[in-house]
Automatic annotation (TrEMBL):
<keyword id="KW-0479">Metal-binding</keyword>
<dbReference type="Pfam" id="PF01546">
    <property type="entry name" value="Peptidase_M20"/>
</dbReference>
<dbReference type="GO" id="GO:0006508">
    <property type="term" value="P:proteolysis"/>
</dbReference>
<dbReference type="InterPro" id="IPR002933">
    <property type="entry name" value="Peptidase_M20"/>
</dbReference>
<dbReference type="Pfam" id="PF07687">
    <property type="entry name" value="M20_dimer"/>
</dbReference>
<dbReference type="GO" id="GO:0046872">
    <property type="term" value="F:metal ion binding"/>
</dbReference>
<protein>
    <submittedName>
        <fullName>M20/M25/M40 family metallo-hydrolase</fullName>
    </submittedName>
</protein>
<keyword id="KW-0378">Hydrolase</keyword>
<feature type="domain" description="Peptidase M20 dimerisation">
    <location>
        <begin position="176"/>
        <end position="321"/>
    </location>
</feature>
<dbReference type="GO" id="GO:0008233">
    <property type="term" value="F:peptidase activity"/>
</dbReference>
<dbReference type="InterPro" id="IPR036264">
    <property type="entry name" value="Bact_exopeptidase_dim_dom"/>
</dbReference>
<dbReference type="InterPro" id="IPR051458">
    <property type="entry name" value="Cyt/Met_Dipeptidase"/>
</dbReference>
<keyword id="KW-0645">Protease</keyword>
<dbReference type="InterPro" id="IPR011650">
    <property type="entry name" value="Peptidase_M20_dimer"/>
</dbReference>
Length: 422
């Protein structure tokens, strides 16, 4: 098999789901899998881009479900790309193409590894493949799909879409996600007033400012009663694999990093963040006015086992004296697979073998995703991420997306090693 050549054929296909493209990529995958002896089919269901479903049953006791997505983000602005995003180019040991890091590269590396293992007759776990074509537009049909296909997707473990290198270049494993509660708080009065009435009139902006000031301490502790009641703080075992020096995070993410135990805080702390705030006159020059309307958008990133519905209740109680309108924009539950689970231990062991170093293991990603939903519908508790080909400089979703050629081959090896030890 010509690993890179086959990957490049796949990367050349434009699968930008936001522009309604993707079906051609799905067909490519089904053909590719069938050509290599894997049962595969397109499942249309309610999604615009079909799901690709595949299966290899070697009559093993355990089944591993591999989830990836074949769609990509729009490439614009095109003039910022140094190469054609749909004509994969190798430069300085890197492959430049849209989807190289997210998620076509990982998808192909895993698939090619499995094809090799089948050829060698060494596969000892059943495998199911689920490739989605709508991940980059927020998986709007995934829940319905899981509802109708949960029996077919039944598995013991799920390998999530891919995680390659940590900021310090060690292999990175992720065992969960943070949850989310996204709300908007609005405060209004009947009409704008001349600011000379300030001694006697209410100003909704001040009310909102006092409320916000009371929600959080300066160093980030959330002051809503019961907010931390359900937090599962990290164990010593979990902290052991989070030893990443602050300087790597500064290089990989931003110079704004202010904490020393940055990696531990990043994954373990729930937060209250102001996304946007608006009130009154913000135009040119001055206008003396008491504005009648002020609002703020807040997101709370939640950690296991905080429940967004319960947190919402605590928040509602907390803001009730302020007489604000509260609108909920989103709720996602957090999720975490145990570091002592079979899938986590197999990922750690295989990463050590392939990369000759300890992996970084995030008990949950600092970001949010639908893992809890998958666990619920498939009735399993072992979902983990790893075996990816990307790194922190991969520019996913941005221009000049890239991966190292060497990391692509490492990804193939990692998949093979994982299949040996799971
Ligand atoms: Zn993405």
């Amino acid at each position: 098999m010509d690993y890179l050549q086959d990957l490049f054929e796949f990367l050349k296909i434009d699968t930008t789901s936001a522009k309604g493209k993707g079906e051609e990529g799905a067909k490519f995958l089904v053909d590719y899998m069938r050509d290599h002896g894997i049962q595969a089919e397109l499942i249309k269901h309610k999604a615009k881009n079909p799901y690709v479903y595949g299966e290899i049953n070697v009559k093993a006791d355990k089944t591993l479900l591999i989830y990836n997505h074949y769609d990509v983000q729009p490439v614009e602005p095109l003039d910022k790309w140094q190469t054609d995003p749909f004509n994969p180019t190798v430069k300085d040991g890197k492959i430049f193409a849209r989807g190289a890091g997210d998620d076509k590269g990982t998808l192909m590396a895993r698939l090619q590894a499995i094809i090799d293992i089948i050829k060698e007759g060494k596969l000892k776990v059943n495998i199911k493949f689920l490739y989605e074509g709508e991940e980059e537009i927020g998986s709007p049909n995934m829940e319905d799909f899981l509802k109708d296909y949960s029996e077919r997707l039944k598995a013991d473990y799920v390998l999530w879409e891919g995680s390659g290198r940590a900021p310090n270049n060690a292999p990175q494993i992720v065992l969960g996600v943070k949850g989310l509660l996204y709300v908007e708080l609005r405060k209004r009065t009947a009409k704008d007033l001349h600011s000379m009435y300030a001694p006697i009139a209410k100003n909704p902006t001040w009310d909102l400012v006092y409320l916000l000031r009371s929600l959080r301490t300066e160093d980030g502790k959330v002051l809503i009663p019961h907010f931390y009641d359900k937090v599962k703080w990290l164990t010593e075992e979990e902290k052991k694999y989070l030893n990443v020096d602050k300087k790597y995070l500064e290089d990989a993410i931003s110079q704004q990093i202010k904490e020393d135990n940055a990696m531990i805080k990043l994954v373990s702390e729930p937060t209250c963040n102001i996304n946007g705030i608006y009130a009154g006159y913000t135009g040119e020059g001055s206008k003396t006015v008491i504005p009648s309307y002020a609002f703020v958008k807040l997101d709370f990133r939640l950690v296991p086992d905080q429940d967004p519905d319960e947190i919402l209740k605590h928040l509602e109680e907390y803001v009730s004296p302020y007489d604000v309108e509260l609108i909920v924009h989103g709720k996602v539950k957090p999720y975490r697979t145990s570091i002592n689970s079979e899938i986590a231990q197999a990922l750690i062991k295989s990463a050590k073998t392939v990369y000759s170093q300890d992996p970084v293991v995030l008990p949950n990603s600092p970001g949010t995703g639908p893992m809890e939903m998958i666990a619920r519908y498939l009735k399993l508790n072992q979902i983990a991420d790893g075996v990816g080909v990307d790194y922190y400089g991969s520019n996913i979703h941005s221009f000049n997306e890239n991966i190292f050629v060497e990391d692509y081959y490492k990804g193939i090896q990692w998949m093979k090693e994982l299949l040996k030890v799971i």
